[in-house]
């Protein structure tokens, strides 16, 4: 009797040692649980059994044998507390699953879960010895189970960490890359690749909002279709990402083409563009942290896109500045360097070039000791094209002046030449006159220029005789010229529309009337004073505005 | 700066793309080009050999996403092979094994194509 007991004890011990060796040799939780359960069932000849472990404080079946799936689903949500076993729901399940023995798996400091065993094959109940033995097995198993649980948790944490690191790497890499690439389409492409690679997306689009609408940088949808759908909605104020539910309820047209997520690309609180994404091929939904990642990449991209745009703008502006400087140079070179002095005439000139370089031109070309040709003109357009046309005009003038032609015929010839050399609707308003010093006479032709003012005895005579502006068509109707005998103290004021059309901050024009009135008042001054007076008046009128056109004045006072 | 390169081998119905070096946002356009050329010339059965690839970033993975749909629509596939652990880990992290067949050896991937071919011919 004692011998049989001994043999039994010895056999049990051997089995325990073997069991301990096996389960401690592995860190695979499933393997360990499977082994524990099989060992228990084998030892007690139980026909069914389960192991439930604590997951987030609740018990969850982790391994089972002989228990139908249907029944397993009924396993109650009970907390893994000390009194779990007495819990009513747990007891109900226990009965229904025909379980007979239950024992906790406890590590040194906490309860890890429970083992439940069904009735023995020989129908005998579990006795005290059995329970003792079961406890022994579970004590041995507890540390192995705990170790493998910890390992699994570490693995999970590691994987989360890996994902984080991987995302950070992506962001870091993109920010580096966005700094070097030079085209906006390439920025969009990198953005797209990163996002679709990260989230397994095959349908996507990236658009930016520009002044006159929406620009598609990348898309897998037909461009026309996408543009027309986007035009149905206003996304320009979109501050937060829109998820699938919101898209379905508020943007059904986008939902229909399969868009599940819209993430705005914001810069300084302004929505500059959108990232539109279709579904993830692995059928997972976009989580909060996914959307956050997409938002971050979008922000990086938009900074890069915006910088590129600003750079281009600056470049264009610089180019324009250079061009204007060139135009200014041309214009400056065309204007006379000095005005010859005549005993009967006091002549003063002024030319203020505007920021954009208008097309004002004036010239004083001495013909011989006695006579001088004075011209004023305004070429339509601004900048380099106007300056070049002006240069053309001057070349014609310089040649024609020396030919001794009559002024009306010469004007007709200049018009023909200009008409031949002008295109795209440009034209020149033009006035010229020849002053004879000795006789104090003028002969002039006005081709559509603001009529110069001749102020005599408190009255104004407008020098209007002439014809059509230069460059519109070849001379068809001859130009008329007029000769006037000047008298002492006569004043002639030649000006361009930069004077009369100068605007104040209320957008009112300086006006012909104002110029005429003030001319009458100041006509007793000398040429320079008259000129400065007009200049000061125009400038104080236009104070606070940007001068948009050139201002040119030629003032002649007869001595 | 040549930190990434691809080479393509013609193996009958299948093309094998060998990747070498670092595949990231900077070098992704190179691979994009390679895929583009193959797809444009109607080659849809592709095996990618990662043996000499030491790093891949999500932008690199994006290239695979950009072409897979068109390739599968044309009854083709991109099968991946011979990744080192580091590279596989990134594919795994982002869930690629669900969508792409990944093989230890290039030959396995090629054989998979020829098996399908045989099945189709057998019909």
Topology:
The complex is a heterodimer of chains A (559) and B (123).
Chain A: H1 2-24, H2 29-44, E1 49-55, E2 58-65, H3 69-73, H4 88-96, E3 99-106, E4 111-118, H5 128-180, H6 184-199, E5 204-210, E6 213-219, H7 223-230, H8 244-250, H9 252-256, E7 261-267, E8 270-277, H10 288-334, E9 345-352, E10 360-366, E11 371-379, H11 383-401, H12 407-421, E12 428-436, E13 441-447, E14 453-456, E15 459-462, E16 466-467, E17 482-485, E18 491-495, H13 497-500, H14 512-522, H15 527-541, E19 551-558
Parallel strand pairs in A: 13-16
Antiparallel strand pairs in A: 1-2, 1-4, 3-4, 5-6, 5-8, 7-8, 9-19, 10-11, 11-12, 12-13, 13-17, 14-15, 14-18, 18-19
Chain B: E1 4-11, E2 14-23, H1 28-40, E3 45-56, H2 58-73, E4 77-81, H3 85-93, E5 102-103, H4 106-122
Parallel strand pairs in B: 2-3, 3-4, 4-5
Antiparallel strand pairs in B: 1-2
Give descriptors for this structure.
heterodimer, A: 559 residues, alpha+beta, Beta-Lactamase, Phosphatase 2c, domain 1, 3 domains, 6-stranded mixed β-sheet, 5-stranded antiparallel β-sheet, B: alpha/beta, Transcription Regulator spoIIAA, 5-stranded mixed β-sheet, 4 helices, 5 strands, 30% strand
Notes on the protein architecture:
The complex is a heterodimer of chains A (559) and B (123). Chain A has 559 residues and is of the alpha+beta class. Chain A has 3 domains: 2-153, GAF domain (Beta-Lactamase); 181-310, 2-Layer Sandwich (Beta-Lactamase), CATH 3.30.450.40; 335-558, Phosphatase 2c, domain 1 (4-Layer Sandwich), CATH 3.60.40.10. Helices cover 45% and strands 23% of the residues of chain A. In chain A, the strands form 4 sheets. In chain A, strands 10, 11, 12, 13, 16 and 17 form a 6-stranded mixed sheet that branches. Chain A has a 5-stranded antiparallel sheet with strand order 9-19-18-14-15. In chain A, a hairpin with a 2-residue loop joins strand 7 (261-267) and strand 8. Chain A starts with a helix and ends with a strand. With 123 residues, chain B is an alpha/beta fold. Chain B has a single domain (4-116), classed as Transcription Regulator spoIIAA (2-Layer Sandwich). Chain B is built from 4 helices and 5 strands; from the N terminus they run ββαβαβαβα. Chain B has helices spanning 28-40, 58-73, 85-93, 106-122, and strands at 4-11, 14-23, 45-56, 77-81, 102-103. In chain B, strands 1-2-3-4-5 form a 5-stranded mixed sheet, with helices on both faces. In chain B, strand 4, helix 3 and strand 5 (102-103) form a beta-alpha-beta unit. In chain B, helix 1 (28-40) packs parallel to helix 2. Chain B is globular. The model of chain B has no long low-confidence stretch (mean pLDDT 89). The interface between A and B is medium-sized, with 29 and 26 residues.
């Amino acid at each position: 009797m004692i011998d049989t007991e001994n043999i039994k004890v010895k056999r049990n011990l051997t089995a325990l040692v073997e069991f301990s060796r096996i389960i401690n040799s592995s860190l695979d939780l499933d393997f360990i649980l499977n082994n524990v359960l099989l060992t228990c069932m084998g030892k007690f000849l139980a026909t069914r059994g389960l192991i439930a472990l604590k997951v987030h404080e609740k018990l969850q079946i982790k391994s089972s044998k002989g228990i139908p799936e249907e029944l397993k689903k009924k396993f109650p949500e009970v907390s893994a507390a000390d009194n779990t076993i007495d819990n009513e729901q747990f007891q109900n399940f226990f009965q229904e699953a025909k379980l007979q023995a239950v024992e906790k798996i406890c590590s040194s400091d906490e309860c890890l879960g429970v083992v439940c065993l069904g009735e023995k094959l020989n129908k005998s109940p579990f006795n005290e010895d059995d329970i003792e033995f079961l406890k022994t097995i579970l004590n041995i198993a507890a540390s192995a189970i705990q170790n493998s649980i910890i390992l699994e948790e570490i693995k999970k944490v590691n994987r989360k960490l890996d994902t984080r690191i991987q995302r950070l790497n992506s962001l870091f890499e993109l920010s580096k890359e966005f700094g070097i690439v030079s085209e906006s389409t390439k920025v969009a492409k990198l953005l797209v690749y990163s996002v679709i690679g990260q989230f397994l997306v095959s349908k996507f689009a990236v658009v930016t909002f520009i002044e006159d609408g929406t620009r598609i940088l990348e898309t897998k949808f037909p461009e026309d279709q996408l543009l027309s759908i986007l035009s149905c909605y206003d996304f320009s104020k979109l501050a937060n990402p829109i998820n699938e539910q919101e898209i379905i309820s508020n943007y059904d047209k986008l939902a229909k083409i399969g868009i599940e997520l819209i993430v705005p690309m914001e810069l300084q609180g302004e929505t500059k563009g959108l990232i539109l994404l279709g579904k993830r091929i692995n059928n997972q939904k976009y989580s909060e942290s996914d959307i956050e990642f997409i938002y971050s990449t979008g922000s990086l991209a938009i900074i890069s896109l915006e910088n590129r745009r600003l750079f281009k703008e600056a470049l264009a502006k610089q180019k324009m500045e250079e061009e204007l400087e060139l135009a200014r140079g041309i214009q400056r070179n065309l204007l006379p360097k000095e005005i010859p002095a005549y005993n009967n005439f006091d002549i003063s000139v002024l030319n203020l070039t505007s920021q954009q370089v208008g097309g004002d031109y004036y010239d004083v070309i001495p013909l011989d000791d006695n006579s001088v040709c004075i011209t004023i003109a305004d070429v339509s357009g601004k900048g380099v094209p106007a300056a070049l046309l002006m240069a053309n005009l001057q070349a014609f003038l310089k040649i024609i002046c020396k030919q001794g032609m009559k002024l009306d015929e010469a004007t007709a010839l200049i018009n023909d030449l200009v008409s031949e050399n002008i295109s795209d609707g440009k034209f020149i308003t033009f006035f010229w006159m020849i002053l004879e010093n000795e006789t104090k006479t003028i002969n002039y032709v006005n081709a559509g220029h603001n009529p110069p003012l001749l102020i005599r005895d408190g009255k104004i005579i407008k020098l209007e005789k002439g014809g059509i502006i230069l460059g519109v068509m070849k001379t068809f109707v001859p130009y008329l010229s007029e000769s006037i005998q000047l008298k002492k103290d006569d004043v002639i004021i030649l000006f361009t529309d930069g004077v009369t059309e100068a605007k104040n901050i209320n957008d009112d024009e300086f006006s012909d009337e104002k110029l005429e009135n003030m001319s009458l008042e100041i006509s007793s001054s000398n040429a320079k004073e008259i000129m400065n007076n007009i200049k000061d008046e125009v400038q104080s009128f236009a104070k606070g505005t940007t001068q948009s056109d050139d201002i040119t004045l030629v003032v002649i006072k007869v001595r | 700066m040549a930190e990434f390169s691809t080479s393509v081998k013609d193996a009958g119905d299948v093309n094998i793309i060998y990747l070498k070096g670092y595949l990231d946002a900077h070098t992704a356009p190179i691979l994009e080009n390679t895929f583009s050329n193959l797809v444009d010339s109607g080659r849809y059965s592709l095996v990618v050999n990662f043996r000499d690839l030491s790093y891949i970033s999500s932008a690199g993975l994006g290239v695979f996403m950009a072409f897979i749909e068109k390739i599968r629509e044309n009854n083709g596939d991109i099968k991946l092979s011979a990744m080192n652990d580091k590279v596989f880990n990134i594919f795994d992290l982002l869930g690629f094994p669900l969508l792409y067949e990944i093989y230890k050896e290039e030959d396995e991937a090629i054989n998979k194509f020829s098996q399908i071919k045989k099945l189709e011919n057998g019909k």
